[in-house]
């Protein structure tokens, strides 16, 4: 995998969590969170959304 392919894969994996956090912050407010907290929320939200989306694939195996 090339560097561009790896960067694209990371972007695709983190995008759902980032969109969730941005939409939640827009609705609820930022509450003065910093960059580190926001990055942790991106990764956590992405992991949860990825596991939910990948769950139906497990049943086909």
List the helices and strands and how they pair.
Elements: H1 3-28, H2 35-59
Describe it.
This protein is an all-alpha fold. It has one domain. It has 2 helices and no strands. It has helices spanning 3-28, 35-59. Helix 1 packs across helix 2 (35-59). The longest helix is centred in the first third of the chain and has 26 residues, at 3-28. It is flat. The two termini are 25 Å apart. The relative contact order is 0.15.
Determine the number of helices (DSSP H or I, runs of at least 4 residues).
2
- Mean pLDDT score, rounded? 75
Q: Percent helix among the residues?
A: over 70%
The biggest sheet amounts to: none
The helix/strand class is: mainly alpha
Oligomer: single chain
In percent, how much strand structure appears in the residues?
A: under 5%
Shape: flat
The parts where pLDDT drops under 50 for at least 5 residues are: none
* Rg, Cα atoms, Å: 14 Å
First and last CA, distance: 25 Å
Give the SSE order as H and E letters. HH
Number of strands: 0
In short:
With 61 residues, the chain is an all-alpha fold.
Highlighted features:
61 residues; mainly alpha; 2 helices; 84% helix; flat
């Amino acid at each position: 995998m090339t560097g561009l392919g790896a960067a694209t894969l990371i972007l695709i994996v983190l995008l759902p969590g980032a969109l969730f956090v941005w939409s939640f912050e827009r609705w609820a407010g930022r509450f003065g969170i910093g960059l580190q907290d926001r990055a942790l929320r991106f990764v956590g939200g992405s992991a949860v959304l990825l596991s939910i989306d990948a769950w139906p694939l497990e049943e086909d195996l």
